[in-house]
Write a structure and sequence with these properties.
17% of the residues lie in helices and 26% in strands. It is α/β, with parallel strands linked by helices and 475 residues long. Helix 4 packs antiparallel against helix 6. The protein is globular, with a radius of gyration of 22 Å.
Length: 475
Amino acid sequence: MPAGVTGGGVIPETDPGYRKVTTALELAQAIVAANKIDPGKTGRAYVIEIMNDLDLGWNEIGSAAQTLASTPFSKHANTPKLHPKLIASDVSNLQISPKKGGLTIFSANGATIRHSSWSIKATSNVIIRNLKFDELWEWDEDTKGDYDKNNWDFIVIGVGGGRVSHIWIDHCTFSNAYDGIIDTKGGTSNVTYSWNAYVGDDGVANAFNPTANLNSFVWQQINKLEENKDSYPLYSTLRNKMLLTPEQIVQVMQGTKKTMAIGELSKDVVNQMSSVTLHHNLYLNPVDRLPRSAGAQVHSYNNYADATNLLAAKRMRDAKFAAMSSADQAKFTSDNPYKFGPSLNGSISVEDGAMLVEKSVYIDVLWPLRNNQTNPADASYTGKILGLDLQYIFHNEDGTTYTERGDSTATGSRLGPFQDSRIKPFAWNTTHGGAPYTLPASAYDDPASLLPVIQAGVGAGRLTWAKENWLKVKY
């Protein structure tokens, strides 16, 4: 975690600053106590333990939570349109802004948060641990599959009311979201994401989820669209022109589309203030952004990305596309096209950002490292990115397997970046020109043996710990 992050500290359950919540109202009251009362004053909440799953849609939290004085809940600006469950629940926004910082929100049992986007603003020293975030996605017809209408992120850090720094998101699990899973904005600095699982939808079986869930959130949406499929132009084109079955559409939709963005507006100078560390995270069938960083400084190590199922889905989709008529193909290649198909991008540094990726694994990701995603002819959109001691495994269509272990600078490496061939030499953007911090060799796991390490502890609900351990920052 970033130096200086202590959250609410290690305090006993009997302390008045330790709040146990079982309902949306109790959560609202605890957040109010953290947001509005300065440290040291009576009633301040330092630790919030979420005891059970919480459905936090605007229509689910109840009028008492909606109308509570200084309630942290608000109705989300984007109202659900197509997913039947979200139409019933609606979506809320929960603002977390503790004055002068110092807050830990955790679950001892890996509780699930549904139908809510959390916004961390104008604060510092906040920890979120051992929670699952779920059910914040629906089919996109409005922007033709570009998912650029509903601004639903599970967590947004920064933007609005002041800078944010020293945030730790640890041992959480994230399913599909309409927009980003976690976005870091407004020059947020000293953020760490560790031991999180980005698992997408479980409607398709995979190595971490051996049994397909035929009532998954994506399946619920697909089944609803099937009731009147010709009413939805994109969906009906996929079914009637690309000749995809519902099962095949679910295969393509299984992954996380916009996993993580660092930096918001293009070429905004505030992006250069952002600094993020990512380690020991699992990305299961990710589509893009592991992360996508604009102008920021990012250190990524010991992360594991496995896109095996999604690569197979992409190849299936591409074969279906190739069999379409040229007129039908044009719907996907015009100036305002339908978008349906995973890009399979990995870690992306743009706009002169600096990203160092170490001892991580990429499986069946088409572009493990990228340095430009807007205009490769314009160097101002190009970032600096370097991979050291990475393992890359790619299953070719002919049944052979490509395997590489080494640095991205090695001759013949397929790690990338390849977008802007004028590779910017890697250098940190710190004032002193050196690394923002150093780690001992013992902090790193060997990528060749990383999978069992990840399997043993990544995500929410995987570890059975005493509650005190979730409050500690050193062990």
